Amino acid sequence: MRGHSRRSRDESVEINITAFMNLMVVLVPFLLITAVFSQLTVLELNLPAGSQAQQDEDKKKNLVLEILIYSDRMEIVDRNSGPIKIVRNIAGKYDYTSMISTLKAIKARYYKVAEITLLLEEETPYDVLIQTMDRVRYYDETIKGQEISRELFPNISIGDTPPDTSAKAVPAASGGQS
Q1: Which domains are delineated in the chain?
Q2: Residue 115 burial (CB count, 10 A)
Q3: Claim: this prediction has a pTM higher than 0.70
Q4: pLDDT per residue as tens digits for the range 20-62
Q5: Are the C-beta atoms of residues 102 and 87 closer than 8 Å to each other?
Q6: CB–CB of 118/67 below 8 Å?
Q7: ∠ CA 105-76-169, rounded to 5°
C-alpha cells in the first residue's frame, strides 16, 4: 500500500483556468464601458461680493447682469441701469424661451461679458435653480443641420433676491383694506 501513495504524490496535476479566462474576457469590456458613465461634473459658482471695492468695480463695467427669480416671473436686470425685461410665467411655468432670446440679444451687444448673477427667493425649488443655470450658461443653435452649443454667460454667481415689491405683492401686504 505504501507504493501506491508515493505514486499519487509524484504525479503533477494540471489546473484548468479556461472558465476563469472566459470570465475575465467578459468582465474587462463591461467594466471599461461602465467607467465612462461614472464621471462627475463640477460647476464652479461664485458668491456675490458685498464689499465697497466690488461695487466700485461693478460700476466701471458696462453691464452687470442679474436674473431675479420670483415665483411668478423672472426679471432680467442690469444692476447699474435697472430692469431690462420681465419674463412672466406661462401656465404656471417659467418661460425659459423668452429668457434665452433676451439673453442672446444681450450677448450680441455685450459679447465680452461672461458673468451673470442668479438671485433666488428663499422658497425657490432646487430644480428651478439647476434649469436656469443650465440655460444661462449655453444654448444650442442649429447651423446647416448641425447642433452647435454656444456660450452665453458661463460665470454664474448666486444669491438671494431683494424683497418682492411688485403690484402683486402689495395687495397681500395691505390686508385687503381700501
Answers
A1: 52-162 (3.30.420)
A2: 16
A3: no
A4: 899 999 998 888 877 766 555 666 666 665 555 555 554 555 7
A5: yes
A6: yes
A7: 150
